[in-house]
Amino acid sequence: MRPVSATYSAEKTSPKFSLPRCDDSWLIALDFKAVSNTTTLKASTGRVTGSATSRRLRAQDNIPAVLYGHGMQALTISVDRRELRLALSGPAGVNTILQLSVDGSTYPAIIKELQRHPVRRNVSHIDFLQINMSEEITVSVPVRLEGIAKAVVAEGGLVDAAVDSIDLRTTPLNLPNEIVIDISEMHPHDVIHLSDVVLPAGVVAVGDADLVIVTVLVLRGEATAAVVAAAPADGADPAAAAAAPADGAAS
User: Are residues 111 and 149 in the same domain?
Assistant: First the structure.
């Protein structure tokens, strides 16, 4: 397969979803977003560790968290749930680079892990990882298909994204929000592999080069017709039809 045409979205656009009031279940839909934008988030220190204290924080719409990385001593902090929701509402989603403001100091960080309540699914704890803006990180970036594969449609086929994201490695500020693949020139039986996707300079795909990214599904009309032709006629004995010798078989 020839290298496919791909564009890389990094513009700052308004989110195409509404933010529910005091509910962070919407974060589930944003986990695949890529690092591209930065925003500031204020964190509070001085919280006492323990289950009872954490429950009180959550009841006040604050989320217990910890910040660590790059040899720093881990800090126990908390963030306002609503402010977190707003900070992550941009196109980069939960992988937004956060300028985490803690007691007058600012730490560039990303979300390493979100822990959720097993039933309500709202966020109950966050691990923030301090990052170096000049060091490479690996982030899962969404894949979006664009265009109409007329040759495929003419054959009754369907272009299908085999994956919804690919892992890319680069520095935090160099990562696109999404990879857009133009499928207009695809034909039946075409397959786009990871190695076919042309990426921006300084961005490297992580994974098997033969990983299937986009494929074409073709309706197997011939097989369906063969099954219909082999079916016994109305009123015929199915057992007799099954026992009948095939054309050309020895008697």
Answer: no
Tokens 């990094």 belong to 10
Residue pair 238/232 in contact by the 8 Å Cβ criterion: yes
CA nearest 202: which of 166, 168, 167, 170? 170
Phi/psi at 210 (5° precision): -90, 5
Q: Is residue 237 part of a domain?
A: no
**Are 96 and 190 in the same domain?**
no
Q: How far is Cα 162 from Cα 143, in angstroms, rounded to an integer?
A: 10
Q: Quick one: pLDDT at residue 43? A: 92
CA distance 79 to 219: 51
- Give the N- to C-terminal CA distance of the chain in Å, as an integer: 50
In terms of domains, do 22 and 126 share one?
yes
Residues 101 and 19 both lie in one domain:
yes
Name the amino acid, one letter, at 203. V
Q: What is the DSSP string of 58-110?
A: HHTTEEEEEEEETTEEEEEEEEEHHHHHHHT-STTGGGPEEEEEETTEEEEEE
Selection from 56, 167, 78 nearest residue 128 by Cα:
78
pLDDT of residue 68: 93
Please give the Cα distance from 166 to 203 (Å, whole number).
12
**223 has a pLDDT exceeding 70:** no
- Structurally, the chain folds into a number of domains equal to 2
pTM for the predicted model, two decimal places: 0.62
